[in-house]
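On clarity, I found the account of how folds are encoded harder to follow than it need be. What matters is that the chain and its backbone geometry are given together, residue for residue. I therefore recommend that a typical entry be quoted early in the introduction. An entry of this sort, consisting of the sequence and the corresponding backbone structure tokens, reads as follows:
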Amino acid sequence: MMDNLKFALFSVVVLGVLGLIAYWSISTLQSGAEFAASQKIGQLQKENEDLAKQLVDLTEELKTLSQAQSIEGSISEPIPVTVTPAPTQPVTYKNQSLINELQNLITNNVLMKLKSRGTRVGTVQNFLNIYNNTSDKVDNDYGTSTQKAVTAFQKDQGLNADGEAGSGTFNKMISWLKKQG
């Protein structure tokens, strides 16, 4: 009897630990596009830091050379030097991967309407969840609820509210996301 109780208790603990591990692994997953974007952002930030350090070093070297030149006085004309500022870091938005997906819809001249299906519809549904601050299911199906949400967005943005999502609607979605930061 005691062995059965120990086994049951051990099983409950093991299942609990496995459940926690499964929850952690699912909650920390990133999409491939998000991972690639975060890697690129990190790389660009590192390059920007390196360039800023180079700029400081070169500015210091320029000051040293200018001081040496003025002390020697052997050169009558100053050497013209142009200091180019470090390149600015490209703007990256909080929802950059979604902006990229919407831009791909524009590039591919996609038009979505009632009964459209696929991951492209999921892109619009993801946007609508952010826009409406909801967590509706992303089912990749352009049904009546998606059509109504797109129509409401189009009305809010001063577009022709026909419930069909095309390049004009996608551009407004991108503009809205960029305003969010």
User: Anything to note?
Assistant: The longest helix spans residues 32-72. The chain has two domains: 34-89, 96-179. Residues 96-179 form a domain with the Muramoyl-pentapeptide Carboxypeptidase; domain 1 fold (CATH 1.10.101.10). Helices lie at 2-27, 32-72, 96-107, 119-132, 144-156, 167-179.
